[in-house]
C-alpha cells in the first residue's frame, strides 16, 4: 500500500484508512481475537492510519488496548463534537470546554499522550469557528494533538477556518471527511474542489454505499443507485476485481488526495476491500462509472461554465488556467 502526505504537512498516511466502527463493542474473547485479526490484516496490507471517534462506542478503548506497545507505528485519529452525555447541555459541540474534556477522555481511553489527528466530528452551528480553531491550536501547542481536520461541514466553513488559521498563525486543518462513492457525488460541487484548491486531504466514508455497490446492501436502492450498482458490477467482471474493490478504487482514480475509509467486521471482507489499493482503473472504466450516476452540477457550476464559453460574457481571449492541484505525490 502506498503512502501519501497528509494535506500540507509532512505526515505520511496510507492510501486507505482503517475505520474504527467495527471495534464498537469490546465483547468476549472471540470478539477480541477478531479485533486483533482485523488490525493485523490492515497492517499486513501496509496500512498505518486508523480513524475512530469518541462517539464510536468502545472503539477508543478497544483500539487503545490493541495498540498498547506499538502505538508509535500508527497514525491514530479520533473525533470530538458529538455528545458524551445526552443529559449534559455542554457534553457536545465544538466549543472549547467540550474539546478539552472530550480530548482528555479520548487520550485516557486510547492509552496515549497525544492523537496524531483530531477531527471536528460535525459542524456545530452554535459555536463560532474562531473559538474552535483557537482551542484546537491550543491543543496542538500543548502537544496533545499533532494535526487537525474537520468532518461533515460546508465547504465555506472549512475555507473560512483555513483563512483564519493563516491570518492568526493558528494550526490549519490538514484534511476533511465527507461521504463519497459512485452513487453519492454531491461533494464534487464544493467540498472536493475546495480540498484540491487548498491542498488538503479528503478522508471519504461509505465508499461502497453501505455495501450496496458491493452487492451486499440492504433495502431497495433508488433508480440512481441501481445504475451505479450495475456499472460497478460490469467493470468488476471485466477487470477480475470484486465490486467492492472497484467502488473503492474509483474514489481515488481521479484524485490521489482522496483516502477511502474501509471498515469491515470480518477479516476476510476487510482483506477483500484492501485489495482496492492495488487496483488501477483505466480511463474507460472511470468514464463509465462517472456516467452511471452523474451528480446534478447545481446552478453555479452550470452558470459559470456557460459564462466561460460565452464570448458575450467572457470575451474572445483564451485563458489557460494554472494547475490547481497543490497536492504532492506518493512517498
From TrEMBL:
<dbReference type="Pfam" id="PF00248">
    <property type="entry name" value="Aldo_ket_red"/>
</dbReference>
<dbReference type="InterPro" id="IPR050523">
    <property type="entry name" value="AKR_Detox_Biosynth"/>
</dbReference>
<dbReference type="InterPro" id="IPR023210">
    <property type="entry name" value="NADP_OxRdtase_dom"/>
</dbReference>
<dbReference type="InterPro" id="IPR036812">
    <property type="entry name" value="NAD(P)_OxRdtase_dom_sf"/>
</dbReference>
<protein>
    <submittedName>
        <fullName>Aldo/keto reductase</fullName>
    </submittedName>
</protein>
<feature type="domain" description="NADP-dependent oxidoreductase">
    <location>
        <begin position="18"/>
        <end position="293"/>
    </location>
</feature>
<dbReference type="InterPro" id="IPR020471">
    <property type="entry name" value="AKR"/>
</dbReference>
<keyword id="KW-0560">Oxidoreductase</keyword>
Amino acid at each position: 500500500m502506498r503512502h501519501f502526505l497528509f494535506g500540507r504537512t509532512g505526515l505520511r498516511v496510507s492510501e486507505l484508512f482503517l475505520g474504527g466502527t467495527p471495534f464498537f463493542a469490546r465483547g468476549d474473547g472471540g470478539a477480541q481475537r477478531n479485533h486483533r485479526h482485523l488490525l493485523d490484516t490492515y497492517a499486513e496490507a501496509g496500512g498505518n492510519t486508523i480513524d475512530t471517534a469518541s462517539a464510536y462506542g468502545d472503539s477508543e478503548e478497544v483500539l487503545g488496548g490493541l495498540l498498547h506497545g506499538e502505538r508509535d507505528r500508527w497514525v491514530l485519529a479520533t473525533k470530538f463534537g458529538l455528545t458524551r452525555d445526552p443529559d449534559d447541555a455542554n457534553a457536545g459541540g465544538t466549543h472549547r470546554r467540550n474539546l478539552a474534556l472530550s480530548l482528555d477522555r479520548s487520550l485516557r481511553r486510547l492509552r496515549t499522550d497525544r492523537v496524531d489527528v483530531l477531527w471536528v466530528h460535525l459542524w456545530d452551528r452554535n459555536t463560532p469557528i474562531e473559538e474552535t480553531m483557537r482551542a484546537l491550536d491550543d491543543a496542538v501547542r500543548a502537544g496533545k494533538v499533532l494535526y487537525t481536520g474537520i468532518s461533515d461541514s460546508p465547504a465555506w466553513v472549512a475555507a473560512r477556518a483555513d483563512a483564519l488559521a493563516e491570518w492568526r498563525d493558528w494550526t490549519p486543518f490538514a484534511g476533511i471527511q465527507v461521504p463519497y462513492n459512485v452513487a453519492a457525488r454531491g461533494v464534487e460541487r464544493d467540498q472536493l474542489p475546495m480540498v484540491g484548491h487548498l491542498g488538503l486531504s479528503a478522508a471519504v466514508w461509505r465508499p461502497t454505499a453501505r455495501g450496496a455497490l458491493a452487492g451486499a446492501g440492504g433495502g431497495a436502492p433508488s433508480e440512481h443507485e441501481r445504475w451505479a450498482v450495475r456499472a460497478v458490477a460490469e467493470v468488476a467482471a471485466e477487470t477480475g476485481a470484486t465490486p467492492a474493490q472497484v467502488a473503492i478504487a474509483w474514489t481515488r482514480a481521479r484524485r490521489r488526495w482522496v483516502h477511502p475509509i474501509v471498515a469491515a467486521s470480518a477479516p476476510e471482507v476487510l482483506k477483500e476491500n484492501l485489495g482496492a489499493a492495488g487496483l488501477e482503473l483505466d480511463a474507460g472504466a472511470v468514464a463509465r462509472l462517472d456516467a452511471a450516476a452523474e451528480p446534478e452540477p447545481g446552478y453555479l457550476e452550470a452558470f459559470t461554465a456557460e459564462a466561460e464559453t460565452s464570448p458575450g460574457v467572457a470575451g474572445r481571449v483564451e485563458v489557460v488556467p494554472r494547475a490547481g492541484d497543490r497536492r504532492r505525490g506518493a512517498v
